[in-house]
Amino acid sequence: MNLLSDASQSTTWPTVAPLITKGKTLYFSHGFSVVFKEQTGVVPPPDVDVILVAPKGSGRTVRTLFKEGRGINGSFAVFQDVTGKAQEKATAIGIAVGCGYLYQTTFQKEVISDLYGERGVLMGGIRTSFIMVSKRTLS
What we know:
By secondary structure, the chain is of the alpha/beta class. It is 50% helix and 19% strand. It has helices at residues 6-16, 32-35, 37-40, 59-67, 86-97, 107-122, 125-138, and strands at 25-28, 49-55, 72-80, 99-104. It is globular, with a radius of gyration of 17 Å.
C-alpha cells in the first residue's frame, strides 16, 4: 500500500519499486502518481496488479462512519489486472476501510475528480473565480 503523499511517492519510488515483485498487488488511495508518471517517475512494474480505493471523505469521517456502521461512499479503480483478481481485491479493500457504497472509476477520472473537488470546491477556487468574474462584469 503506497499511502504516502504524492510528493513523497515520487521521492521514495526508487527505494520502493524494487520491493514490488511479480504477482504482488500495488495499492494506492489516489491515482496522481501513476497518471502523471512522466512527472513523478512512478511506473508500476508490468507483472503486478495495480489498484486504488478512494474513500470520499477525510480519514476522521471515514473512521467515524465506519464505527457507526454506516460507511462512506468511495471509488475504486484497476490500472493493471495481471492476476485476474484486481477488481475483487479493490472491492475487498474498499469494504474493509469502511466504504458503504463503491463505484468503479479509472485512475485518470479519480485524479480529475479529486483535484477538482479539493482545489476547486473545498479550497474555494471555483467560488473565488466566480466572484472575480462577477465583479468584473458588474464594473
